[in-house]
Amino acid sequence: MSADVIARTTSTRAPSPRARAAKRMLQRLPALLVIAFVLVVVLYPLLWLVLGSFKTQPEFLSEPFWSLPQQWNFDNYTEAFVEGGLGRYILNSAIATLPSLGIQLIFGLGAAFALEIMVWKGRGTVLLMFLAGIMIPVQMILLPLFTIYFNLHLTGTRWPLIITYVAMGLPLTVFMMATYMRAIPREMFEAAELDGAGVYRQFWYFAVPLVRNAIFTVGLVQFFFIWNDLLVAMTFVQSSELRTIQVGLLNFTGEYGAVSYGPMFAGIAVNVIGTLIIYLFLNQKVMKGLAAGAVKG
């Protein structure tokens, strides 16, 4: 009889599944609130940007900024591409970005392999020289570079952009690639050398495949840096035919020099959403590259 009483007492004290679920929800509530706040902070500007790309000029000037567009049409996007030349600006940005990025990755990989895998005297000093390049502010070198490009008759072309982007991004690329190269076991290259593999074969068939995810990571970082650059492009691009998308968006003006907010918002939306799609597409490779770089260093 006493055992039955104890069993009934124990069963009455045990929390029900609904109570346990409510307790778990209360425990996770602070984390959920933080996540919700971060989502609002991140998504609200993007939503505001997309909604603004559908508004007309009078709506920007007379309606509150939180108001919805009165008509949902793509006139602003059409005007941005047809009259604003957004397509030409995107093409100019791609022409300036892709060669610069390719040169950075090729030379960065080669330099990192030479600095971390190959054994030679003075490689530590050379690596420090690359690291010193990271600390040079770009504002200090723009005027001397402009003078050099002018004397070499390179102004009015895309070469100042490509050369400057490569010079600015190469130190960081070499440093990051060297970090990933350092995580590769040296025994692998020693075994390859014993099997008769030369330096070039070790580089292309061993080092490059092993840091493939790191290449995506560094490439994506440098891509966003070059694509979103405004200062260098404004300094070296004088012709309207060579403007990149960031410089071109500054010139979305209408009658009497007034800013055309609708087409400008449409152009910014195309730029932001396009780069966001690229990031989401390569997100997994970037995460793998970051994890690989954190294994050893």
What is the fold's blueprint, element by element?
Elements: H1 2-13, H2 17-52, H3 57-62, H4 75-82, H5 86-116, H6 123-134, H7 138-151, H8 159-182, H9 186-194, H10 199-210, H11 212-227, H12 231-236, H13 245-248, H14 261-281, H15 283-293
Features:
297 residues, mainly alpha, single chain, MetI-like fold, flat
What does this structure look like?
75% of the residues lie in helices and 0% in strands. The longest helix is centred in the N-terminal third of the chain and has 36 residues, at 17-52. The model has no long low-confidence stretch (mean pLDDT 83). The protein has 297 residues and is mostly helical. The chain folds into 2 domains: 2-52; 83-293, MetI-like (MetI-like fold). α6 crosses α8. The chain has 15 helices and no strands.
